[in-house]
């Protein structure tokens, strides 16, 4: 069970300190948005490069961008330890996943709430993680979509059938109230933005989420 706090809910004026605050987590989740794939704009490669230089933990880059075939590999080349692209935006997901792995990153595919997983099951051998979105991508602080739990189960089942070590991540509205049902459905990597950075102590929130996920 791994916890990946999203720095989208952190103070962007003090990102190095905000990364230190989650040093007990497994990953730092960095949401890259381009104002085209999603109606919001966050940060890009230069900021990720700076974060990589100071982060005490590996970086889990979630790219909500158009044309990931072109724009995603540079994040892996920069040293991001995990790079997630949206399959809805990818032209050639097999080639993209191979490019990410060749650059040394874990290759991960994200699916939006309205996207079926079944057509992409064949991609599993190319992947190290599948991200099942539990909100519509674009903003932090939205309500958790419990109706995505059957999809988490479906992905976990497919991973079991295929074998190999492929993680199943959930992202959006994950909190102390919702994490147990995600774990129960088969998720093993949990992204949480507001639940971690909105708490009085980010470290305590990480510890609490980890404990609940392991129950
Ligand atoms: C939403 C982002 C999430 C977001 C999660 O598009 O992908 O990573 O930061 O924020 P919370 O945990 O507040 O829903
Ligand atoms: Zn995210």
Task: Please tag this protein with its features.
binds zinc ion, carbohydrate metabolism, 215 residues, eight-stranded parallel sheet, alpha/beta, TIM Barrel
Q: Gist?
A:
By secondary structure, the chain is α/β, with parallel strands linked by helices. It has helices at residues 15-20, 45-54, 68-71, 73-77, 93-102, 149-162, 179-185, 194-197, 202-214, and strands at 2-5, 28-33, 59-64, 82-86, 106-111, 129-133, 167-171, 189-192. Zinc ion binds next to strand 2.
Write out the CATH superfamily name: Aldolase class I
**Widest β-sheet, arrangement of strands:** 1-8-7-6-5-4-3-2
What's the SSE pattern? Answer: EHEHEHHEHEEHEHEHH
Heterogens: D-xylitol-5-phosphate, zinc ion
| CATH level-3 fold name | TIM Barrel
Strand fraction equals: 15-25%
CATH arch. level architecture: Alpha-Beta Barrel
What is the end-to-end distance? 10 Å
Please state the overall shape, judged from the principal axes of the Cα atoms. globular
List low-pLDDT spans.
none
Structural overview:
- This protein is of the alpha/beta class and 215 residues long.
- The protein has a single domain (2-214), classed as TIM Barrel (Alpha-Beta Barrel).
- Helix content is 34%, strand content 19%.
- It has helices at 15-20, 45-54, 68-71, 73-77, 93-102, 149-162, 179-185, 194-197, 202-214, and strands at residues 2-5, 28-33, 59-64, 82-86, 106-111, 129-133, 167-171, 189-192.
- The protein has an 8-stranded parallel sheet with strand order 1-8-7-6-5-4-3-2.
- Strand 4 (82-86), helix 5 and strand 5 form a beta-alpha-beta unit.
- Helix 7 runs parallel beside helix 9 (202-214).
- The longest helix is centred in the last third of the chain and has 14 residues, at 149-162.
- The radius of gyration is 16 Å and the shape is globular.
- The mean pLDDT is 98.
- It binds D-xylitol-5-phosphate and zinc ion (ZN).
- Residues 6, 29, 31, 62, 171, 191 line the site of zinc ion (ZN).
């Amino acid at each position: 069970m791994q916890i990946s706090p999203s720095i989208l809910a952190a103070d962007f004026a003090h990102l190095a300190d905000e990364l230190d605050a989650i040093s007990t987590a497994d990953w730092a989740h960095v949401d890259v948005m381009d104002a085209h794939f999603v109606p919001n704009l966050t940060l890009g490669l230069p900021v990720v490069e700076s974060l990589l230089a100071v982060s005490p933990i590996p970086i889990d880059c979630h790219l909500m961008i158009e044309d990931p075939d072109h724009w995603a590999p540079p994040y892996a080349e920069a040293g991001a330890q995990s790079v997630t692209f949206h399959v809805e935006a990818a032209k050639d997901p097999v080639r993209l996943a191979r490019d990410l792995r060749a650059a040394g990153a874990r290759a991960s595919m994200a699916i939006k709430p309205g996207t079926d997983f079944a057509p992409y099951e064949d991609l599993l051998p190319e992947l190290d993680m599948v991200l099942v979105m539990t909100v519509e991508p674009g903003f932090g602080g939205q309500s958790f979509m419990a109706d995505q739990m059957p999809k988490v189960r479906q992905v976990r089942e497919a991973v079991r059938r295929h074998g190999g070590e492929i993680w199943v991540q959930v992202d959006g509205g994950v909190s102390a109230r919702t994490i147990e049902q995600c774990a129960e459905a088969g998720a093993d990597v949990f992204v949480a933005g507001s639940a971690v950075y909105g708490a009085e102590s980010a470290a305590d929130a990480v510890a609490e989420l980890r404990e609940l996920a392991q129950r």
